[in-house]
């Protein structure tokens, strides 16, 4: 079944083999993925160098997250309208420039502004990656291409802290934390130099619903802001009012989309069960990712006394497990169908339970559980992404990819907020880590159950 009938997508540049352009997409994806995590390692050095207070440091993180979440759906639609390669290239150029501005920032205020610009640039380029894969790669080769995309996303998340620790330790030219941002300059320049290899596609009849842009952006900010800031501030009244306002804004957005002749997000997309149920499953999956990395890093660094670099080395275990399975997940999916995600979720639950048993003992006892968790993550991530986009008409690929990326971001924010509550309510960090792992196991079991609602084929 294909969602929505539409005229064919207009391709304005000859399509190329994935091997010719996929590396350009993936290196840019990796650049944006690590920037969501690498900054956590650099915060103490930023505080010393810029004389930044706790509130400023929070906004170095929150500004990026909010900008990404608010702009992804609009970014995806801009690619549909003006050309996915063109918008992707614009996003890479802006992200590279914003990274340089971050690396040269003389004050905390400039750094926060540059991080917001980074987030907006990431929102432009991120949806285009999956949209280009869906419109320019032969259907038979798409699962393998998306597996590589999933591998890149996972490696960026897993190794962001290690890479940041290595860059700060290297302290090349005395740049310290600034190198974490300036390293994006050669990466971005290389991606732009190879941009011509990426095929162009767009649907010129698509128009941008400006009312929809304003409403969905405001709704996402109202949703994500209290999730990012709420726990640190003790969940004051404004956080609950913001969440209520987000619900109202989303309702208004849905009403305008039903009436619009050119909606930002065509709500008939959600009639396709693979898309709607897949988004719920994706939300649950990502709720368990950033939150797990957060409580693991806190446990290792605060409770076990490891440095940022030493704790990053521990993350190699989960990265090794992820590498072992992620590139072959599409082959496993060919045999197991939708159940491949359930298998991955259950394997992750086993790994988390192993870490629960090991908590309180030596750090090395965590390694087997970390490796098993990585194996499950590698099995589940790419097939889940493929499922969500598998039945979307090419005309709406950019918008659908934007919705998917938005769900990834909101899932991370919701997970950090909820698991953070469980973690910090415990009497000590070991108890908090174990309580957080129990909550994460429940999430993985819920994910395995939700997958049963997907279409069988």
Automatic annotation (TrEMBL):
Residue spans crossing the bilayer: 20-43, 55-75, 87-106, 112-133, 145-169, 175-195, 207-225, 237-256, 277-300, 306-328, 340-359, 365-389, 401-427, 433-454
A Pfam family hit: MFS_1
Membrane topology value: Multi-pass membrane protein
Keywords: Membrane, Transmembrane, Transmembrane helix
GO cellular component, one term: plasma membrane
Principal subcellular localisation of the protein: membrane
Top-level taxonomic group: Bacteria
InterPro entries documented for this protein: MFS, MFS_dom, MFS_trans_sf
Subcellular location: Cell membrane
Stretches assigned to the Major facilitator superfamily (MFS) profile domain: 21-457
A GO term for molecular function: transmembrane transporter activity
Annotated protein name in UniProt: Drug resistance transporter, EmrB/QacA subfamily
